[in-house]
Design a protein that fits this description.
The structure is a homotetramer.
Chain A: E1 3-8, H1 12-24, E2 28-34, H2 38-48, E3 51-52, H3 57-61, E4 68-71, H4 78-87, E5 92-94, H5 102-115, E6 120-122, H6 130-141, E7 147-155, H7 165-184, E8 188-194, E9 208-214, E10 219-225, E11 233-240, E12 243-247, E13 253-257, E14 260-264, H8 269-272, H9 274-290, H10 298-317, E15 321-322
Parallel strand pairs in A: 1-2, 1-4, 2-3, 4-5, 5-6, 7-10
Antiparallel strand pairs in A: 7-11, 8-9, 8-15, 9-10, 11-12, 13-14
Amino acid sequence: MTVRVGIIGVGVMGSDHARTLVANVPGAELRALCDADLASARAMADETGAKTAGSDPLAIINDPAIDAVLIASPDNTHRDLTLACLAVQKPVLCEKPLAPTAQECLDIVAAETRAGRRIVQIGYMRRFDPAYVEVKEALRSGQLGRALMLHCFHRNVSAPPWFDAGMAITNSAVHEFDIARWILESEFTSVRVFRPGASASGGAGSPVFLVLETSSGQLVNVETFNNAAYGYDVRGELVCEKGTVSLRSPVNSETSHKLIQSLPYPSDWRARFATAYRVQMQAWIKSVLTGSPAGASAWDGYASAAVAEAGLASLAEGRSIAIVLNRRPALYG
Amino acid sequence: MTVRVGIIGVGVMGSDHARTLVANVPGAELRALCDADLASARAMADETGAKTAGSDPLAIINDPAIDAVLIASPDNTHRDLTLACLAVQKPVLCEKPLAPTAQECLDIVAAETRAGRRIVQIGYMRRFDPAYVEVKEALRSGQLGRALMLHCFHRNVSAPPWFDAGMAITNSAVHEFDIARWILESEFTSVRVFRPGASASGGAGSPVFLVLETSSGQLVNVETFNNAAYGYDVRGELVCEKGTVSLRSPVNSETSHKLIQSLPYPSDWRARFATAYRVQMQAWIKSVLTGSPAGASAWDGYASAAVAEAGLASLAEGRSIAIVLNRRPALYG
Amino acid sequence: MTVRVGIIGVGVMGSDHARTLVANVPGAELRALCDADLASARAMADETGAKTAGSDPLAIINDPAIDAVLIASPDNTHRDLTLACLAVQKPVLCEKPLAPTAQECLDIVAAETRAGRRIVQIGYMRRFDPAYVEVKEALRSGQLGRALMLHCFHRNVSAPPWFDAGMAITNSAVHEFDIARWILESEFTSVRVFRPGASASGGAGSPVFLVLETSSGQLVNVETFNNAAYGYDVRGELVCEKGTVSLRSPVNSETSHKLIQSLPYPSDWRARFATAYRVQMQAWIKSVLTGSPAGASAWDGYASAAVAEAGLASLAEGRSIAIVLNRRPALYG
Amino acid sequence: MTVRVGIIGVGVMGSDHARTLVANVPGAELRALCDADLASARAMADETGAKTAGSDPLAIINDPAIDAVLIASPDNTHRDLTLACLAVQKPVLCEKPLAPTAQECLDIVAAETRAGRRIVQIGYMRRFDPAYVEVKEALRSGQLGRALMLHCFHRNVSAPPWFDAGMAITNSAVHEFDIARWILESEFTSVRVFRPGASASGGAGSPVFLVLETSSGQLVNVETFNNAAYGYDVRGELVCEKGTVSLRSPVNSETSHKLIQSLPYPSDWRARFATAYRVQMQAWIKSVLTGSPAGASAWDGYASAAVAEAGLASLAEGRSIAIVLNRRPALYG
């Protein structure tokens, strides 16, 4: 059986998903796509051989010839579109964040709980990145003892003018919230946000530094710096009682020239996480075929959104904010 | 259109190809496979959903329901099976080496030349490895000036007892012969083989060290050490007039424990070259669909075999051996 | 002229200083040493050829045949011994911290101010470490833009049972306070201390995580983990507007064995900072000869102690503590 | 007792030795120096406080107020000056090579043998480099098994116009000959020289590639590239039966900027081997004081010169040349 996929939104992220699906995922077919920008939809349809559904996401969701939906439209559309997929019980891979607010995520959790089975996967692709997988395996092996701290650094080359400190939390740091929860298998209990350089540069893309604590007494700190200029760079170190394990970024070659040994940085996340996106897509298609869920759930999407909301409060109030999650429905284990 | 593939030989290499095809290559279908060992054929057929053609490679090659053939059977079967594919004009990806001797390769070159179009691709997968691709690009960019030397190191954890110094050349070093020709875009003119530790360990898998010269005056040295014990490790450095460029091996994470910062080596080539094998397979399927050849040609297979033969002569005689290639047919550019 | 040096305290640190002086510093002579433990004093005197002054530090300080004094006795003796050196206007290199409390440091600052010239140097040897020097130079070069964040990690293999979270601040983190002030050329304005794993391990040597802010709006975070087990490891990354610069630890060789590429960690600070200690000692002797001060001043010692005290308050109270320094006397520029 | 040192020749190397001695070696005094260039002698005398002996090396050697002599004058003066030191039984540290020809070295060996004690040390400073020391220790530890191959790379930024392929062997590669003999504790038995790029660039400073074999069946290859342009870079890897150990070059910091992570190369050997030169000088002064020899002997100087001569023959004749050393006098163990 071939899974017929529809993609909603073919901006940078949706286009990348479309190409990944077409190039690397046997057992799937990119049947249709849509975008608010019709020219983008047309261009990507031409490139991939898919049909275009114009600008209408419901035409994708409700198309009986489409088995599964990938949502890569703007964050503020995620809730309604995901609920529409749930209404027709159609498997959905929704880009992160699941929704901008925790309450919207809870709406989805409630709908999925009513549906009685896992239908929604969130595009927290780092769970499929070999580096993070190895970090989690190192912790699970027990040889390093218990986890004490996780240091996370998330840097982009440049942020658009409208990217403010709040988005650094709700859009960038959520990756770290999710992966930390996945690695540590603990929930966050508090967050304190700091703004280095706030007085000086003030504007969009200046760094944000978060210190979080978990129910197991672990400390997680997250630097997000969306105007880091020098390159796209995601680092992480898990510090345990007996040792540490760190991510290494993929680098294929090094050059020596003009008194410098140099290693390249990618300019954005696509090169850094190409494997993660590919493996995530293959895992999602497999989960559609088998009915066995993979990756981050709607509940995980809610948990990260709740942490992000507490982060926004800390950013506004300049103090530690406690994080209290709802009770987890049995559907989410 | 879907390319229906048959695989001949499902040992370590053929099984890996089968899994890569099934997991990562849209537009292809693994239709059938065979192996001299019927149990292996049955097991891999069960795993992949392919049919088994028992132990008969011709049942694969001549099956009209199979569009393309992958040959991963023992080296000494390559010539006849590739000729059989050429006889029915069926696209073939033949594992390296194309054949154990230069003459056998020339037989294939002759048959393909008669066919008048490129049908044969050789599984020199390093041409699709991102690290080697970047080395070639760095040279082509011109910023490092002309290439002067290429230092190659090729180490395996352990060799089987029957793996002698000759096989280190004909089976291992051929990878370096091919990739050096591809990067340098020059042909080899001489080879001198040295045998470190020969008197002491003498046996299978002891290192072999080759010094080769190209028609452009470049020096290429190749160490193959098939009993290197410590890990599977392929290194390469291209030294140019103004700088150098080196391969880096993929490493996802590093661990600090017991006064050691440690980075893992893979135990064999599959992890090191997983990307290369995947991209090679996707490129081959695409070439079958488009008719536009990709990767190493039968001529490239002949050239590496000719270098290997000169290497065997040098190994036997302890002196430099000149390498003279036949005239290249127009089919090969 | 030869500078005749007396050393007070020949525990681990004082012995290391004695050996460094004798082996590497022309123009100086280790004349005498003392220690509360007479056997230690005797052993080090025998090793270095110095005289022993028994357990009496004043016999060193007041000896007219001694030109300069190095204090490496316990922290709680630093104030009185440094004041005794100031009383006789004898140049002194005092191990860090200058004193356990800010008030004690101010006593020394006051005495030196009365003396009217710089006599006291603090053993914040990192200012002489080539890696930190390069970080400071990179910032000063301007190519990376303004400094925004400094991430510091300070890990020891194991802490003695009496080493509590307060000492992690007053004894370990003070190194980071000093080097951050020196690199950033800013004063700290607030500190917030977090205790990862507090509930679980609770005891001595569990990690402490500090987030500090400077008068220039920079954020400095410091992890001190005195029971890190895996090795002695000091890391630092300065994040600027256009790029970052990071310390690299000295490693002379790497080994590949048993599927691991391994780089050694030192078991304590002596190997990591051997160059810094040597250069510091040479700079101190030169400053004694020339009368031109080098390294960290008594004021620097006070500033770090004041930050440490605020850190202790934050540790006790679980909130951010503001840091307000006294007015800097003109003597300290 | 203070060792009063005289330095003959204060070009780049001699000046560096003078500064190292003055800055880092207690127990020694730089008493006098001379140079064929009187202005250089005067300038370095002013800088170091030494007397100048004008351009007359014998005024240094025969000065009763000088206890030990460091020879850093041109290679072709080494034999006569070393013999003059031997004539007055004055300890001498002679820069490498001991002399341009094996026969000249044998003259010195003969004179020292007649003297009946070790008086001559050769400035093969790599024996004091921490990286090479660790490589030797790794081999001696036995954990890697027997040594099979040593891969050496020796690259300079640029060579003077008169620096030809012969000098690449007699002046550069001799470092590798010496350090390989020291690590492997074997003598060389043959050498084969290759000239990559010879036809193309032809001139001074183009690379030379040597393949040597030892009496223990080990293979040593040496690339010397004196116009490598990109930086001063010395690499080495010892390949053993069970694993390998490699040099790492000292790097204090790394910078991330403009999509590049960069590590600096030094522009010449002084930064790379600063520690080795310092430790060598301290060891030499100690050996003068104790009478116990350190470092490379006159015999070692002869052995490397003999290998270099065979290398010159191979360069001229394009074939392997056997290396046969004289019988080693008992003085050299």
